[in-house]
Every structure is written in C-alpha cells, then in structure tokens.
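Input/output pair, single chain:
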Amino acid sequence: MKIEDIVTKLNRKSFTVATAESCTGGMIASSLVDIAGVSACFMEGYVTYSNEAKEKNLGVSHHTLEAFGAVSQETASEMSVGVRKRSGATFGIATTGIAGPDGGTKEKPVGLVYISCATPQGVFTEQHIFSGSRTQIRIQATKAAFALLERCM
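Output:
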C-alpha cells in the first residue's frame, strides 16, 4: 500500500498517528507530510536520537535503556507507547536501530532495526535486519514502519 493510501485510510476512519524516530531521523514524518490532507491525521513527530531525549520526550524508562539498550524491542515498544500517550493519537509508530556504517556489534549488527506500533489493542513490535548503505537502511526501515502501521489499522 502506498503512503497516500495509508493517509486516506487514516482519514476515512478518523484515525490519527504520531511518530517517534531514532534511526530513521524524521523520514517517516517527512514521508507523511509529503501527502496532501495529512494534517487531518498526523498529530506530531519526535526525532529522539539520544537516550536523554527518549526519556524526556517519550517517557522511555532509564532502566529499560540501561538494561536493554537504545536499540531493543523494549525501547522501541516504550517509544511507541510514549508517543501515542503524549500525542493522544490512535497509533504511535517508533523506530530505533543501527543505520551504520559504524556502531554495530556482533550482538547488534549494522542494519538491526526495531519498529513498534502502539494501538488501542496493544503494542506490536518487529525486529528487522536490513542491509545496504546508511540511507538504504533508513529507507527500508521507513517502508517497514508504514507496512506495520497498515497491518495495525
């Protein structure tokens, strides 16, 4: 489904969405605001690159960041829940990962991305391992975030 179709569906159902991005750096929000009519469904977006920003703006627990790291299923889930709660949106979409080319480890390689969608029915979080350049990883993560949002609708 194209982003335009997702926006149309959000508007038709009177759903709203907010974003919390780390590794995608605002790419999801930017893709949304490229679409005419998005102002009816896009509430707000955060780029929370640092752990401090995740805690301050999204309410991610310091304990979660210490125990699991910024790139984890737990952090992604808390990011999506936090942005949904703070914005009042129907859906909160969050991404956190390692876009590279540096920063990867054996346990958390470059391309590892967690994508989470908080919904009225619960939280759905996926793990992906993308490949390619930094930009290619960010684009793949953005597309996967929209695919998850579509499934959650």
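The chain has one domain: 3-152. The two ends are 12 Å apart (CA to CA).
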